[in-house]
Design goal:
This is Peptidase A1 domain-containing protein. The chain is built from six helices and 16 strands. By secondary structure, the protein is of the alpha+beta class. It has a four-stranded antiparallel β-sheet with strand order 3-4-8-7, with no helix packed on it. Strands 14-15-13-16 form a four-stranded antiparallel β-sheet. A two-stranded parallel sheet has the order 1-10.
Length: 339
């Protein structure tokens, strides 16, 4: 069998792509090319490699299955693992709406190496007792979110009986915790180039959904991943405050976890995950004392100007009344005014 050559078949999620022996790769490539004869072949993102890339597809990853076929991995016992386009394609980094095959020929090696691309959005189960591996197609982002929501909060040591929380147990927090700001990540089903012109509007929707002021919502980062936009948001204290109250923080966390942010269709679908509470940022010496320094400089300049003005007036008066006059100096006559 072609997949039994050399080291056999290796499943390694630490390897990005998949590598097949020459006969298997040729059969895979020919089958794909036959299905995609209507698409245009283009140069890959790196000219040092002969990547097989297609243009004219579109940037919405969720629609790739309408263009690219599903590929089945068939095992010796007849079981099949269906690979969707995201499991054998990667997005072209230099051409919009273009994708390349993420399965390559393993040059001069008959080993089959199945990398992380094969198990995207796939739950892999290892049965070590029976030496079996299982695959379950799923949405990994949703699993992570569910596990995050169901995780119980850590137990807090207390000498007295715990008080009943005012809100859901997930949003309770230690009384001595100071909430500086709250961060979370949002995945949207549109690419950053289409999203960036509307970031201000998106921030306003986030603020409305979390019941905070728009000035509190800050964009920390935006990246592209598998045809989606990944945004990192931060919610800061209102006004000039240094921290967020526990009540406000609980309400913000509830809004994030319960998907209270409602977006119009122009932003596509979204998922929120990986939120955290951050302590207040340490203020530098300048941030703590800049007002006092500015006031000191202002007062010093004001006193300097005042002293210079007084010295100037005094010097003019001294020249006017105390200047030396020679003995033969003729004083101007002054007309006597009548009494």
């Amino acid at each position: 069998m072609v997949f039994d050559g050399k080291y056999g078949t290796i499943l390694d999620s630490g390897t990005t792509y998949a590598y097949l022996p020459e006969p298997a790769f040729k059969a895979f490539k020919d089958a794909i090319m036959k299905e995609l004869n209507s698409l245009k072949l283009i140069q890959g993102p790196d000219r040092n490699y002969n990547d097989i890339c297609f243009s004219g597809v579109g940037s919405d990853v969720s629609q790739l299955s309408k263009t690219f076929p599903a590929v089945d991995l068939v095992f010796s016992n007849g079981n099949r693992l269906s690979l969707s386009p995201e499991n054998y394609l990667f997005q072209h980094s230099k051409a919009h709406g273009a994708y390349c095959l993420g399965i390559f020929q393993n040059e001069n090696d008959q080993t089959t190496l199945l990398g992380g691309i094969i198990v995207r959005n796939t739950l892999v189960m290892y049965d070590r007792e029976h030496l079996k591996i299982g695959f379950w197609k799923t949405n990994c982002s949703e699993i992570w979110e569910i596990l995050h929501l169901l995780s119980p909060p850590p137990a807090l040591p207390s000498a007295s009986p715990p008080l009943a929380p005012s809100g859901p147990q997930f949003y309770t927090m230690p009384e001595d915790l100071i909430v500086g700001f709250i961060t979370f990540e949002m995945i949207l089903s549109i690419m950053p180039p289409k999203l960036k012109p509307h970031l201000t509007k998106l921030a306003a929707f986030v603020a409305h959904g979390l019941e905070v002021d728009t000035s509190q919502v800050h964009l920390l980062n935006i990246t592209s991943e598998y045809g989606h936009s990944v945004i990192t948001w931060a919610i800061y204290p209102a006004g000039s405050g240094d921290y967020i109250s526990h009540a406000a923080a609980r309400n913000i966390l509830a809004g994030i976890a319960e998907h209270r942010v409602s977006l119009p269709p122009m932003f596509g679908n979204y998922q929120v995950f990986d939120w955290s509470i951050e302590p207040p940022a340490e203020r530098t010496w300048w941030q703590q004392h800049h007002l006092a320094v500015v006031m000191t400089i202002f007062i010093t300049i004001l006193l300097g100007l005042l002293a210079s003005g007084m010295w100037f007036v005094w010097r003019r008066r001294w020249h006017s009344f105390g200047s030396y006059k020679p003995v033969n100096y003729v004083f101007p006559e002054h007309e006597l005014q009548p009494l």
